[in-house]
Structure formats: C-alpha cells, structure tokens
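From the shared-data thread, chain only:
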Amino acid sequence: MKKVVVGLSGGVDSSTAAAILRDRGYEVVGMTLWLMKGKGQCCSEGMIDAARLCDQLGIPHHIVDIREVFQENIVDYLVAGYSAGITPLPCSQCNRTVKFGPMLKYAREELGIDYIATGHYARTRYDETTGRYQLLRAVDRSKDQTYFLYDLPQEVLSQVIFPLGEQPKTETRRVAAELGLHTAHKPESQDLCLIEANGSMRAFLDKYITPQKGEIVDQSGKVLGQHDGVHHYTIGQRKGLGIAHSEPLYVVALDAVNNRVIVGDRAATLSAECTVQRVNWVSISEPKAPIKAEVQIRYRSPATPATIIPLEKSRVRVVFDAPQSSITPGQAAVWYDGEVLLGGGVIDPEDFFAQT
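Structure, as tokens:
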C-alpha cells in the first residue's frame, strides 16, 4: 500500500483530499504545520479541526512546529518588503520554503514516506519527452492555484499529489458532505493567514513598522495630500487616498527612501514590460531564445500574451503585447502555454525605483 502525508489546514479542501486518498487505498498520515499563534485556519483553530478530521478518518496526525521558519521566510520577508516600498507575495514564498519543502523533508526523514499531498487545485504530469514534471492548471479554472505554486522545484513536483485538481469546488463540497466530514460546510478562508490572525494586513504591518506620515505627490512632485505610512499603500491602489481630484488617481510608485506615495491617472499605471527575477522554470528547461507565452501578473487577473526574453542570473524580460495596468514589484509574474505552467518569478522592483 502506497503511503502519503497529507498537509491539513483544517479546511474542507485539505480534509477532502485526505479522505479521497484514503478511499483510493493509500495509507494516509495527516500533517499540520504550526506556523504561528493566533486564530486562522492554519493556526490554532485549524490544528483543532485537522485533529478532529484525522480522528474521524482514523488516520495518524502530526503537528510540526515550524514557527521559526515561518517567521524568517514569511513575516520578516513581508516586513522587509513593505518597508522598502515593495508589495511581496507571501503565498508562493510560503509554499516553497515553509510548506512543501519542509513537509517532504519531514515525511521522508521522520516518517519514511516519499509522497505528500495537499488540497490545492492544481495538477501534475510527467513529460517523457523532456524528462520533467509539468505543473498544470486545475480543471476548475475559477479555483486554479498554480499561480501560487510556480516556485516549486522538480523534486517536490515529482513527489506531490493534488487529488482535487481534476474536479470543481462544488464536487469537493459534495464529496465532503457525502463522507460526513465535519469540515464539509466550513466557510472558505478568504484572506492570508496573517490577515486572519491580525484582522487586516494593515494591523499586521503596524506591529512591525512604525507608521510615519509623509507626502502624497503627483509625478511632477506636487504635493496633493498626506499619508500615514508608505507601507499602507500598494501599486494600483485607487481607494483610500483621501485626495479630492478632478479625475481618479492611482498609486503609481512608492518611494520609501523619501517617504512619498506617488500618484497619477490611469494611463500612468500602464507598463509594456518588466523584468522578473528569481525565475523558476517549471515545466520546461530554461530556453536559450525568447518564447511566446501568456503571462499572469496577479492571482485573479487573466493571462495575457507576452514575449519572455531570457537574461542572465535567473532573470527574464517580459514584454507584453499590450500594456498592462499596475504591474507591482514584489508580486509574481507567471507564464503559461495553455494549461501548462512554464515558469515564473518575482517582478523586479529595480524597474520601478528607476522611474521614481
């Protein structure tokens, strides 16, 4: 019987993934990562729900204290980014450095198990032609989470199972209810775990960054208003600026060095290209020449045609067929060929600091 460690957050997705694998004949072991103190599905409440689920399914449950790793790789990473006027994307960073990698390491070294599984909506496939494991979008595109998984290495992709990738979320709820799982009707988490634990991203950041008042200026440097901390703003933000103006204004840059928030009209938010660093080539090896792909720059934004130009030092230049609004440094740019995720990386802030 094949053994698998299933990451359990206490939500319906991971619960159903564990139940599905058990019913497929796997010997399932539940694992919950203890990330931080406080409420939220991945913390105290999540651990309790995960423990209840394992008891219900009759499977072992392990809680792994990974709070120091989470603090260093996510909390410190976010604080440093926001302090520098960057809006980091914690989820992809968390998946590689905090969740999947440590899960696989613990499964192998402590439990002697080579496979892990999660409730993410994604799929994998082995390509015999290239000898690589491919990461594919979920069948349910509305729930597809591959954007957050672009940074997973081949070692993880070769050992991970995504039981929910072939089904819609409605089917997950139905299966959970049919199996009588106590998480079947649990509300879906809508926020980052840090937001759930602190009430808002603003509240979380204010615990680590002292708000400092400064100026909101237009692109010519004219003062239009005041802000209460650069870290409270993000590129593309329109609401909450507190400025009366003849036309809508958007945040187009954050100048943390001079403590300024720079705003402009919608046209000022458009960019035709950007540099992406820390690139991870997933389903294909790094190309030697430019390739065409569809690039996604936010989780909920559509993928749009672009040219990916390889550069040195794990970097690429992304040139869009049409200018894109509010390309945000620190966020991920992920490129696809249809349902296949080719690669991705972090939008380089240097492009944007150079403009300010």
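Residues 107 and 113 are 5 Å apart (CA to CA).
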